């Protein structure tokens, strides 16, 4: 071994021993396995995620997602009509679809909304 490499190896070994001492043997040097476990438990602090202290709930805002998808569809349709030189008055999203009491679409009211 060259002297330079020898000093580096000694330094690395001393640093490893120093870290092991502070990981296991600090604040008091252990004399039993129970003390080693106790010292080790006090030296390692688990983060909140490893302690099981986080709880995330992800929810989808359905109305906003549908509105965003509809707006993107309107934009794509408008671009396609322009690209093919197809004349149109307006392409827009209706916020609420009129329904009859039976749950079917009320086309008379829908036509009036489209006309406005």
Structure write-up:
This protein is 56% helix and 0% strand. The protein folds into 2 domains: 3-43; 62-115, no CATH class. The longest helix has 23 residues, at 3-25. It has helices at 3-25, 33-43, 62-83, 107-115. Helix 1 crosses helix 2 (33-43). By secondary structure, it is mainly α.
Q: Which keywords apply here?
A:
single chain, 116 residues, mainly alpha, elongated
Short description:
The chain is an all-alpha fold and 116 residues long. It has 2 domains: 3-43; 62-115, no CATH class. The chain has helices at residues 3-25, 33-43, 62-83, 107-115.
Helix and strand topology:
Elements: H1 3-25, H2 33-43, H3 62-83, H4 107-115
Task: Report the end-to-end length measured between terminal Cα atoms.
Answer: 90 Å
Q: What structural class should be given to the helix and strand makeup?
A: mainly alpha
Order of H and E elements: HHHH
Per DSSP, what share of the residues sits in E-state strands of 2 or more residues?
A: under 5%
Report low-confidence residues grouped into runs of 5 or more.
Answer: none
Write down the overall mean pLDDT. Answer: 79
Describe the biggest sheet?
Answer: none
Radius of gyration: 35 Å
The tally of strands reads 0
The total domain count is 2
Helix percent reads 55-70%
